[in-house]
Design goal:
Blueprint: E1 2-5, E2 13-15, E3 28-30, H1 34-59, H2 61-66, H3 68-90, E4 95-96, E5 99-100, H4 104-112, H5 115-123, H6 131-134, H7 150-162, H8 166-196, H9 216-231, H10 243-274, H11 276-294, H12 299-314, H13 321-325, H14 330-346, H15 356-363, E6 367-371, E7 376-378, E8 386-392, E9 395-398, E10 405-409, E11 414-415, E12 435-438, E13 442-448, H16 449-456, H17 460-477, H18 482-564
Antiparallel strand pairs: 1-2, 1-3, 4-5, 6-13, 7-12, 8-11, 8-13, 9-10, 9-12
Helix pairs in contact: 1-3, 1-7, 1-8, 7-8, 8-9, 8-10, 11-12, 14-15
Length: 565
Amino acid sequence: MAVLCGGPCKGLVLPLAGRHCRSCPLQLVLACGQVSWDVAGLLSPLALIFTSLLWLRACFSDLQKTYVVLWLVLDYISDCIYIGDIVIRLRTGFLEQGLLVKDLKKLRDNYIYTLQFKLDVLSILPTDLAYFAVGLHHPELRFNRLLHFSRMFEFFDRTETRTSYPNIFRISNLVLYILVIIHWNACIYYAISKAIGFGEDSWVYPNVTDPEYGYLTREYVYCLYWSTLTLTTIGETPPPVRDEEYLFVIFDFLIGVLIFATIVGNVGSMISNMNATRAEFQAKIDAIKHYMQFRKVSKDMETKVIKWFDYLWTNKKAVDEREVLKSLPDKLRAEIAINVHLETLKKVRIFQDCEAGLLVELVLKLRPQVFSPGDYICRKGDIGKEMYIIKEGKLAVVADDGTTQYALLTAGGCFGEISILNIKGSKMGNRRTANIRSLGYSDLFCLSKEDLMEVVTEYPDAKKVLEERGREILIKEGLLDESAEEESMEGKSVEEKLDRLTLNLDTLHTRLGRLLTEYSDAQMKLKQRITVLESQMRQQDLEDFFSDSSDSLSEVGGEATPAGL
């Protein structure tokens, strides 16, 4: 967690540990987001504890009188914390057009003109100065501190989006709300009982002169028990006697119904969310089972398919990565893919020391595949269309009989990279050179030939490097025909010349198209300019014509006047 200096140095990053920038006055701007969340995380439990204790002290006067010094110390410590929170909010940055605002005046205005600032100011008004008039045993004078309780809701909202276990957090949050409501209701019940009179009827709290009900622990536990029974609408409680008791019980029953509906709705929703992945996976299994039964698939094959699904679920591989990440923008999706798969891709011999851009493009093309025990990943002589990178599991290079093992491939190994490059002069062409079989369940990454070719077209230099490395591997393994390679190189030189001619023709065609476009634009502008000039000329002619007409009329009028006289 860090802060940004808002002084002349503008932007010096400092740790949030009470330090300041030595080159300018103490003007710290807290970076938005993480700092605000951390401060809310500190204040939310304090707000919850202090408000709960405030209700308790206001209703249970014995608790207030017994520990009055402790409560005074805690009260003013909480006031200092609340004031510090306001100061922090005045320095908390916010984003404007994607940039962190560090201007202190803007930061103050952004906070001061909000409703939260007004509530925060009301929550620290020194209402407890009335202690001098009424005494120290009236903690209800500090009820305005309850306005700071909203800080806890802010923390809960932020935590729900940041936690890795949102369902557990929501359940804990719901239980906490219910316990707080039950606690507050118990305090109100005790306060009403005190106002009516302890032991006045069967509904209120029993007479405190009875030793069984006269000590503080029993008073609170009894009220908490009554509140729990009433709000959860279970169990029997004494019926109310007075009108005010009836009204309070009616209000409690209404709150209890809302709590019950909230519990049922939220818990049902949470359970559905928690089991959503399992339900979706089970639906796929059921569809496959129904299809196999309809097509009368053999029992052995059906068992193999079910075991494959069971392996996916047990090892948490049932999630379709592409489906999950499709809602993310391309940039974030690429960063996640790089974080997860880049080190695996670097283990492939032909991709080692390739330029970063090529590896990033290839990482996005990797597709996970899971093979069952005994499955052939490829057979000798097959056309090579993919290459594989082993993530987990063990593979065996076997003879044609499927049992004799020549070599063992483990996690981090790869195969099939030569066949998808289709190197000229290779004795095997683009065919597989060995049989590879999965010994157990194996997790592989697959890269298809089409995806590789699509990527390397954008990186022609990288394509040459890959082919050169593949040729070196073939020479090392004795699988490269030198004469065929030379012939291919000669043919390739002719092909390169043709490609160069084609490229030059395309370039000339592009330039010609650009010149035609510029010529058309110039003609259009020239026509527009001629049209404007013609209109100006017409207007000028009209003005000259009307000017000559008016002059001739005035001359005729001047000659006619003397004659008339």
